[in-house]
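Progress narrative, Year 2. Work on Cyclic di-GMP phosphodiesterase response regulator RpfG from Cecembia lonarensis advanced from sequence curation to structure prediction during this period.
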Amino acid sequence: MSKIINRIIFVDDDTIQHMINRKNLQRLKPEIELFFFENPFNALEWMEGNDADLLILDVNMPEMSGWDFLDLLQKRGKTIEVKMLTSSMDPSDIELSMNYSMVSGFLIKPLKNEIMAEILGVLP
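Result:
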């Protein structure tokens, strides 16, 4: 049985993707709670007092890499399932992800509805 996803936090500096993902995810699962952050520091602050079922984390951001973000999460004792978000699959990213037990996979930008439906456990 797969885990039920009701709250997703996105950490990605691409605001256009935020708008597209919000619209598509709400169409797939209207009751889903979505939290979007362009700035990873704001996301870390939010995560101090809030929980989510899934973190979708951009690998490459200007303020810090997704890997640095994961390091800070671990230092703070936070655990959450993480899907790394990337525009191109770099084999070194896959290798690096093996250092993080929270990382359960990679998603390629732009997110396809079929992939999000699978994650949410709903029909597209």
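The chain is about 40% helix and 20% strand. Helices lie at 15-28, 40-49, 66-75, 91-97, 113-120.
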